[in-house]
Amino acid sequence: MAKFRKIGVLTSGGDAPGMNAAVRAVTLSALARGVEVVGIYKGYTGLISGELKELTARDVANIGGISGTILYSDRCLEFKTEEGMAKAVKSCHDNQIDGIVAIGGDGTFRGATDLSSHGIPTIGIPGTIDNDITSTDYSIGFDTAMNTVVRAADALRDTCESHARCEVIEVMGRDAGYIALECGMAVGAVGIAVKELPFDTEACIAKILDQRAKGQRSFIVMVSEGMGGEFGEELTKKINEAGIDTRFIRLAHMVRGGAPTLRDRYTATRMGDYAVDLILQGKSDLVVCEQDNKLVEVDIQYALILDRMYKNKLKDGDLDKFTAEQVESMKAFCAAKHEKFADIMEAANTISKN
Ligand code: F6P
Questions:
Q1: Chain segment 310-342, per-residue pLDDT in tens
Q2: Shortest-distance Cα residue to atom 6 of ligand 1
């Protein structure tokens, strides 16, 4: 096994609170094992252009509580081309980078698996507020984003209560409804609209009217970004037309900021250390995942196809390289995850019935 003298760390895709804690952990864990670390700026863009800086323990000492990413982030189109990949690999060789830890979402992992297949050992760490990486129960940033939403919803509840209003709150999550689902349940939303499950607008309005008749003054409806287009605005219009004074708010990017919570700092630190452990064992093309409260390593190619299966986005031939047993295990994993999501929604709906 080649001796690792220097590894690179990068953050890519949408930033997520806790990414800095992961960068800190990767750096300190590698330095503690006698391995140098370079920070690669702006994700794969900086790898291609050579925007690198050696990271010392002092550089990362106090960044765990800061949101965003000190390494900056980008979504790099050039990296998806053969020329871009060739430049990235050359940059690794020119700068004696023996392996890379890449922190981000599914786009980041597609890049990581490509780098691995071009001979650069790469390990992924899930970092996205969306929590939409199927192979892991948890991705860095989710908890902080949810706490931000809950604080915003509490503030909106205060004013809704004073004015006897309803607030329709749209939250990020891209196509995934985890933020809307869990926050909606936590703040006692009267309705939660996510792309993954059917939403009955008429039933939601009837529920609001019924509860208003029983004396309830304020209402929150949580809508996931994945509902698309103007869904939130249109829903607001319909509730207004039913006679309930209603406002709409899109929390958008504010949900991605704010000091990372304990959960994000802690998980990021554990995952960062774990990733360094894997790479120094000579492993590659893996993503660190949390499953049933344990950290495990999952083959990135497997994780990406599992993700497509869960999201109903499988392409012809995607499953060809897996054994029948692996495919069955993927199906069971996805089914259990869908079931868990539906169970939470059912509980939220039951609780908000009266
Ligand atoms: O993936 C994280 C995320 O914040 C999604 O929730 C959202 O759809 C998207 O990124 C927004 O991307 P951008 O920052 O490029 O507008």
A1: 999 999 999 999 999 999 999 999 999 999 999
A2: 173
Length of the chain counted residue by residue = 354
The overall pTM is greater than 0.90: yes
268, 18 in Cβ contact below 8 A?
yes
215 CA to middle of ligand 1, Å?
38
Burial of 88 (C-beta count, 10 Å sphere; 0-12/13-18/19+): buried
Residue-wise pLDDT for 252-266, tens only, equals 999 999 999 999 999
Cα distances (angstroms) measured from residue 251 to each of 64, 149, 283, 323: 24, 8, 40, 43
Instruction: Report how far ligand 1's centroid is from the alpha carbon of 174 (Å).
Output: 6
Cα separation of 216 and 218, whole Å? 6
Cβ of 256 less than 6 Å from ligand 1: yes
End-to-end CA distance of the chain: 63
- Assess whether 130 carries a catalytic annotation: yes
**Ligand 1 atom nearest 174 alpha carbon:** 8
